[in-house]
Write a structure and sequence with these properties.
Distance between the termini: 32 Å
Helix content: under 10%
Structural class: mainly beta
Radius of gyration: 24 Å
Number of strands: 30
Shape: globular
Length: 469
């Protein structure tokens, strides 16, 4: 439940603002020192992206590096960015601005009507991923909003990454992967680090919680000064691993061995983009008392010194072969089993597709572009609802070319019950297993795979697909 804001005398608001300004000044000039002038280069790493937020005070971010996400949701995506947060994100320098001292400030602000605005920026690039056999390091030096206790109710600062297939789809979370490098709520002296993946709710990644770890900042608190928050994604080990660090000390890790290969591949088999934001309210603050409410202080920024991305190593490791799926069994009555792999080339009708030899055995359908489709009659979902669709796909599409693989029932023009986005995977026979959530389905249906893209170019091949509970 939301609490109604309480009125406070003007003199108290003025005193609170003056006190807050003093606290901010003390925190920013405290024992952790001023913002660094340049992004440090870790030994043995090659820089692939950096922003140290140098620039005149009151100016916006460098739009060659960042894009502003505005409003209360992604276009056509879930309301409140899918988390229940209540602010409106803007590109105003009241919410997102450089401070002239080498820092970015993302500041949530409440207006006279009690409505909150804040800021959310994302890298234009979506290709942050370790080279094959190498490592990726993503790091920020930042100070969480310097507010604690009741005054911090509802604050939710974060530094995190989302899988590239999310951009333009907005409904394929958590299958496409989310790497939370730093999250904090309610001004607590703690950071949370999490991998989100698989299906929601539940699944191998325990959604919507994810696979997480946490650590308190020391010396000093996360709010009183700058600390470094880092994730390393290591593809030089087998199994692959993600490791999280606070001020250079590892406190959490997730290994590919903790889940099935398909879930790991769907969550990590692509690039990522980086996000900085301060949300207000939503599910995470709700787990720690809720807010914001009338006692929440407005105008306390997350202060970011730098964001850097580096990579190291790389080679050409021999990929683990993927077993060819068992041919689809045919249930009594001649219907297809929704829960066993349906070979894509076994369509009953199609438009715009072609079949070709598949490196995983048999054939696949290819040359799939905007407007193409394939029909599979008599798919039996049974009495227990299916909630997931999985496709085995590959793409040799050029950079900037991507599209959706959609599932529709009984009519090619019916609204999709689910979809996932796919861009280049490294080749037209470089196969990945990609999951997507779907609306609950039971009974017997004709299934259409439809292919939608904003570009006319071919963007995907399909080997097989199936459904799951």
């Amino acid at each position: 439940m939301r609490h109604r804001p309480h009125r406070r005398p003007r003199t108290r608001r003025l005193l609170a603002a003056l006190g807050l300004a003093g606290l901010l000044a003390a925190g920013l000039a405290g024992q952790f020192g001023p913002a660094q002038a340049a992004v440090p280069a870790p030994s043995g790493w090659t820089q692939v992206f950096a922003d140290d937020f140098n620039g005149p005070a009151g100016t916006g971010v460098n739009t060659a590096n960042w894009l502003y996400t505005t409003g209360t949701s992604y276009p056509g995506g879930p309301a409140g960015f899918g988390t229940g947060e209540i602010e409106t994100m803007t590109s105003s320098t009241a919410n997102v601005a450089l401070d002239g001292a080498g820092n970015l400030r993302i500041t949530p602000v409440r207006n006279a009507a009690g409505q909150w605005t804040s800021g959310r920026i994302e890298t234009n690039r979506t290709d942050f991923r370790p080279p094959a056999g190498g490592k990726l390091r993503v790091e920020a030096r930042l100070q969480m909003p310097n507010v604690t206790g009741a005054a911090a109710k509802g604050y939710w600062p974060a530094f995190w990454m989302l899988g590239a297939p999310f951009r333009g789809n907005y409904w394929n979370w958590p299958g496409i992967g989310e790497i939370d490098i730093m999250e904090n709520v309610q001004g607590l002296n703690n950071e949370w680090a999490t991998l989100h993946c698989g299906t929601s709710p539940g699944g191998v990644c325990n959604e919507t919680t994810g696979i997480g770890g946490q650590r308190a900042c020391s010396p000093g608190t996360c709010q009183s000064g700058f600390h470094t928050y880092t994730v390393e994604w290591d593809r030089s080990t087998s199994p692959e691993q993600l490791r999280w660090y606070l001020d250079g000390v590892q406190f959490h890790s997730v290994s590919a061995a903790q889940m099935d290969a398909g879930t790991w591949a769907a969550a990590t088999g692509h690039g990522f983009f980086v996000i900085l934001n301060v949300a207000m309210g939503g599910g995470f603050p709700g787990a720690f008392g809720g807010g914001p409410d009338g006692g929440t202080v407005s105008g306390v920024p997350m202060v970011v010194d730098y964001v850097g991305v580096w990579q190291s190593g790389g080679g050409n490791p021999t990929p683990t072969p993927t077993p060819t799926p068992t041919p689809t069994p045919t249930p009594p009555g001649g219907n297809r089993n929704a829960y066993a792999p349906i070979q894509a080339e076994s369509f009953d009708a199609q438009g715009g597709t072609s079949t070709e030899a598949c490196t995983e055995g048999g054939q696949d359908i290819g040359s799939l572009a905007n407007g193409d489709w394939a029909l599979y009659r008599g798919v039996d979902f049974g009495a227990a609802p299916a909630r997931q669709f999985t496709g085995r796909v590959a793409s040799g599409a050029a950079g900037g070319v991507s599209g959706l693989v959609e599932v529709r029932l009984d009519s090619r023009t019916a609204a999709p019950i689910g979809s996932f986005a796919i861009a280049g995977t490294g080749g037209w026979q470089s196969w990945r297993t990609v999951p997507a959530n779907i609306t609950d389905v039971t009974g017997l249906h004709d299934v259409y795979l439809t292919f939608t893209s904003g570009q006319p170019a071919d963007f995907v091949n399909v080997n097989w697909f199936d459904f799951g509970h």
